[in-house]
Amino acid sequence: MIGTRKLAKLFLVAAALSPVPAGRALASGGGGGGGAAGLHLLAMDPIAVPIIDADRVSGTLNFKLVVEAADAEAAQRLTAKLPALRMAAIAGGLEFARLDASALRAVNVADLDKALTGAIKDVEPGVARVLIVEVGASQS
Question: Per residue in 57-79, pLDDT tens?
Fold first, then answer.
């Protein structure tokens, strides 16, 4: 049986190694200031879209995104527009999966990044960058 102290240590290690939590996260930007001068990140829930090949589903494209806002005001707007940003990411992912993805080869992350960044920036120009933190393709 695991003792309370050992369990607490395991929890702290797991929390330190876990990815950015869902929602808005702020980190200082190098200088002594945080808040408005910091990094404004918004993590999205994982997205999975089908890979269509010759009129049949041949696999699934899975990815996780973190959106960086240009400033604190844009971060507030992005938080309110999260469903619209997610729909844009799904649409961009579907288009990429239809044209450029295969369950049998590695995902071209540079092209996926261009597709997702363009789709999301069309919805909200306050997005500074779209960061792909996890990506993969699998056969069905």
Answer: 999 999 999 999 988 898 999 99
Query: Is the entire prediction scored with pTM above 0.85?
Result: no
Cα 134 to Cα 11, 12, 34, 56, 123, distances in angstroms: 23, 23, 27, 25, 22
How far, CA to CA in Å, does 84 sit from each of 46, 47, 94, 96, 98? 15, 14, 15, 18, 21
Q: Which residue has the higher pLDDT, 16 or 131?
A: 131
Gap between the Cα atoms of 123 and 119, Å rounded: 7
Q: What are phi and psi of 94, to 5 degrees?
A: -60, -45
One-letter amino acid at 12 equals L
